[in-house]
Amino acid sequence: MRRSEREVKDPSQIEEIMAQAMVCRLALSDGESPYLVPLNFGLGDGCLYLHSALQGKKIDLIRKNPRVCFELEAYVEVLPAPKICDWSVRYATVIGTGRAALLEDAAEKIQGMNAITRHYSPAPHEFTAEEVAKVAVIKVMIESLSGKKVN
Ligand SMILES: Cc1cc2nc3c(=O)[nH]c(=O)nc-3n(C[C@H](O)[C@H](O)[C@H](O)COP(=O)(O)OP(=O)(O)OC[C@H]3O[C@@H](n4cnc5c(N)ncnc54)[C@H](O)[C@@H]3O)c2cc1C
After folding, report:
1. What pLDDT score was predicted for residue 5?
2. Which of 35, 94, 95, 126 is most buried when burial is the number of CB atoms within 10 A of its CB?
3. What spacing in Å lies between the alpha carbon of 38 and ligand 1's midpoint?
4. pLDDT tens, residue by residue, 68-81
């Protein structure tokens, strides 16, 4: 990282940024063009969980190429200053890479759906078999993570 003083190396701080983030920006590629989608997410052991309709561009791309990059951010705030060139932004971000897999097993899908629910609400939720069947659950096994924090 060019601004090395901004690098977050402590794994517990990286975890904290991930826990505070509300949106996961998932970048996919068909080998020619990048494609990026904002998604809700949940955290697992060394992985991210995402959910989706069963069809769509991101599902097609994951099937073609499971390699992904993702970004999560927290504490974002624009900091104005009298001179425009002195404006700043406070943020903490994590960028990672990994491999996405579409889960088939119902128990594994429920594990992922629970992780996503837990990220946004402490209230437990029971999923019916029908709810599980009509949603795609994506597990991203994380291969690399970097963290950066400003202000
Ligand atoms: C904060 C946030 C959270 C979200 N959480 C989820 C989630 O958890 N699960 C989920 O499935 N979806 C979520 N969405 C919607 C998601 O961003 C996609 O719109 C959706 O998943 C469809 O993606 P797709 O690749 O299947 O697109 P398709 O329906 O196949 O459409 C592909 C085309 O639509 C365009 N497109 C797709 N999504 C968007 C978009 N968001 N904005 C502008 N153009 C778009 C693409 O550029 C492409 O040309 C969320 C959106 C936001 C903003």
Report:
1. 87
2. 94
3. 6
4. 999 999 999 999 99
Is 56's C-beta closer than 6 angstroms to any atom of ligand 1?
A: yes
From the CA of 52, give the closest atom in ligand 1. Answer: 11
**Ligand 1 contact via 117 beta carbon (within 6 Å):** no
Domains of the chain in start order, with CATH, are 4-150 (2.30.110.10)
CB 140 within 8 A of CB 100: yes
Model confidence pLDDT, tens digit, residues 33-89: 999 999 999 999 999 999 999 999 999 999 999 999 999 999 999 999 999 999 999
Closest to 13 measured CA to CA, from 79, 69, 94 = 94
